[in-house]
Each structure stands twice: as C-alpha cells, then as structure tokens.
C-alpha cells in the first residue's frame, strides 16, 4: 500500500507544506510555531498575496472540510467542490443561515441553493 503525503497549511502565515501524517498530531508551522491544519490530498494553495482566497481556505478548513477527491487516498481524479473566493463563501453562508443547512454542507455545494447527491 502506498502512503501519500498530505497537504498541511498555516492560514495565518498563508503557507502550505506536504508532509506524511504524524501519529503525534499535526506538525508545527516553521514560521509561527502553531499547529498546521491538515488540508487533505487535493489542496492547491492560493498565492500568498491573495488574501481573499486564503479567507475562503480558512472558512473551508474552519468548517471541518478538507480538500479531497472522491477517494480518501488522493487518487481520485475528480476533487470535490470547495469555494475559492470570499464571495462564494458568503453566498453559501447566506444559504446556510436562510435554510438551516449545516455550514459544512453548504460550503461543499457547487450551487449553494441546490443540494448535491453523492456519486
């Protein structure tokens, strides 16, 4: 069985690293020392200067979601949808507040108003 590295990120520093998972918890950020957050196998970090995209990453990771494809091992070729901008996050949060849908579920929808079915 092949073990793939996971993407770990520090949102306040806006950096990302690929590391093997540790049994002792999340590795520390080399810049600030805080624990890195596991972002999943399919995370593509935005440019460091793009604060709007990093705020979307913070919302997704804060909701407990990860950037994964259909397969948890990272070999799936169709990654699940995650918002990339602050506007996409705000639209999904508004739908979640209006309809009572959990925030994590609303953030995972490609169209915020239409529930998605698992394949």
TrEMBL record:
This is Deoxyxylulose-5-phosphate synthase. It comes from Streptomyces globisporus.
């Amino acid at each position: 069985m092949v073990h793939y590295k996971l993407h770990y990120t520090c949102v306040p520093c806006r950096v990302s690293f690929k590391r093997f998972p540790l049994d002792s918890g999340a590795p520390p950020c080399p810049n600030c020392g805080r624990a890195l957050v596991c972002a999943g196998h399919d995370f593509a970090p935005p440019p460091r200067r793009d604060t709007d995209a990093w705020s979307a990453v913070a919302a997704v990771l804060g909701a407990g979601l990860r950037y994964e494809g259909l397969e948890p091992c990272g070999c799936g070729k169709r990654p699940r949808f995650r918002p990339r901008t602050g506007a996409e996050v705000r639209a999904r949060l508004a739908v979640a507040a209006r309809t009572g849908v959990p925030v994590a579920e609303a953030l995972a929808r490609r169209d915020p108003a239409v529930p998605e079915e698992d394949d």
